[in-house]
Design a protein that fits this description.
By secondary structure, the protein is an alpha+beta fold. The protein has 2 domains: 13-213, Beta Barrel (Butyryl-CoA Dehydrogenase, subunit A, domain 2); 237-259 and 268-379, Butyryl-CoA Dehydrogenase, subunit A, domain 3, CATH 1.20.140. The chain has 12 helices and 7 strands. It has a 7-stranded mixed beta sheet with strand order 5-6-2-1-3-4-7, with no helix packed on it. Strand 3 (155-162) and strand 4 form a beta hairpin. The chain starts with 12 loop residues before the first helix and ends in a 9-residue tail after the last helix.
Length: 388
């Protein structure tokens, strides 16, 4: 049975974007500390919590803010332009886990996502756990890689498969941090502040009320967020993350060239035709990819808002737009990074950071060539097939 909807004040896109922009100075002040310690600095996490980010996808009936999907994606992009680690927590490895709240009762959603001040939930949706039926729930064991942001989380989302069944995206469990072992495995050049350690549970009892099967079950809450395919939602922050990182790199390059001369010619770096051409190509890549992604986001959102089913072509084109945004972001960063030459290899300069961050994004499963192939199948008149 679905939970009753709760009337709430609609979340304003401009208000949330203004709130995200207001965090720029705070994020920059704590960026070095986040890199060194590897989780985001506590003041940054607290500020993201006050923005409502970690409850953005939680139903209003469970105490969440239930943002419109396009609003959430724009905020992810904005935060990513300041720091890729913050953008990752915002859109890929942090707030997106809250989508599971649409498939549990309001009471469980409130306990998991809204009981603590920030409401950080870590984890990984990959079905790496094995669940054995037990009286009133399951006994779960497993180990999940890339389970950030683990240190600040009070709860973990963990993908699983029931014993004897094939793993697939959709079934998830909500496990308290007290039952989770965090294994220090996170060592990376890019997005160090995400602290995506492995985590494990061993013979942990999870009550049925704290399990989610978004692959087969109807959501408990009626909002359009929960009518989106959960696999699509889990991947949807990747494109905005990449475009935000690219914008941050391009802005950083513009600031650099404004004060940088060419030691060999004595002219300003920005006067060089090759530099100008690279900047133009980067701008075109980001703007065109952003336009395609925005088109599909609003088309998909408009469809689910009206209660209509999504077509295979809409799903395929969104996947294509999202994956293309990652490729275009990586292309734009590469263009300005190489145009900056040796200035870009200094770790203190933002370009070096954005370069490594974007390469972390390109390695995600949702940016893989398989995503392009699945979109291509539909464009060629073949069935999309089930996500793996």
């Amino acid at each position: 049975m679905a939970d009753s909807p709760t009337t709430s004040t609609p979340v304003s896109l401009e208000q949330k974007l203004d709130g995200a922009r207001a965090l720029r100075g705070l994020i920059l002040r704590h960026r070095a500390r986040s890199d060194e310690a590897r989780p985001l600095a506590p003041p940054v996490v607290e500020a993201l919590g006050r923005l409502g980010l970690f409850r953005a996808l939680v139903p209003a009936s469970a105490g969440g803010e239930e943002w419109a999907w396009p609003t959430w994606m724009r905020v992810v992009e904005e935060l990513s332009s300041v720091d890729g680690a913050v953008g990752w927590i915002a859109g890929v490895g942090g707030s997106v886990h809250a989508i599971a709240s649409g498939w549990v009762s309001a009471a469980v959603g409130r306990a998991v996502f809204c009981a603590e001040p920030a409401g950080v939930v870590a984890g990984a949706a990959a079905p790496m756990g094995t669940a054995r039926p037990a009286d009133g729930g399951y006994r779960v064991s497993g180990r999940w890689p890339f389970g950030g942001p683990s240190p600040q989380a009070g709860w973990f989302v963990a993908g699983y498969a029931r014993e004897g069944e094939a793993p697939r995206v959709g079934p998830m469990m909500l496990v308290p941090a007290t039952d989770v072992e965090i294994i220090d495995t996170w060592s990376s050049w890019g997005m160090r502040g995400t602290r995506r350690h492995d985590f494990a549970v061993r013979e942990c009892f999870v009550p049925t009320a704290y399990t989610v099967n978004a692959a087969d079950d109807a959501p408990r809450h009626p909002g359009p967020l929960y009518r989106l395919p959960v696999g699509l939602t889990l991947c949807s922050g990747l494109g905005p993350l990449a475009l935000g990182i690219a914008r941050g790199a391009m802005d950083g390059f513009a600031d650099l060239t404004a004060a940088l001369g060419d030691r060999f010619t004595g002219t300003e770096r920005r006067e060089r035709l090759t530099v100008q051409a690279r900047v133009a190509k980067a701008e075109a890549a980001v703007r065109s990819a952003r336009a395609f992604l925005s088109e599909m986001v609003h088309e998909v959102w408009g469809t689910v808002e009206h209660g209509a089913p999504l077509t295979e072509q809409q799903l395929a084109l969104f996947r294509l737009a999202n994956t293309h945004a990652v490729a275009a972001g990586a292309q734009a960063v590469a263009l300005v990074y190489h145009a900056a030459r040796t200035s870009a290899v200094i770790s203190a300069h933002p370009l070096e950071r954005f370069y490594w961050d974007i390469h972390g994004v390109t390695q995600h499963r949702c940016a893989s060539p398989e995503e392009l192939s699945r979109a291509g199948r539909v464009l060629l008149g073949l069935p999309l097939g089930r996500a793996r």
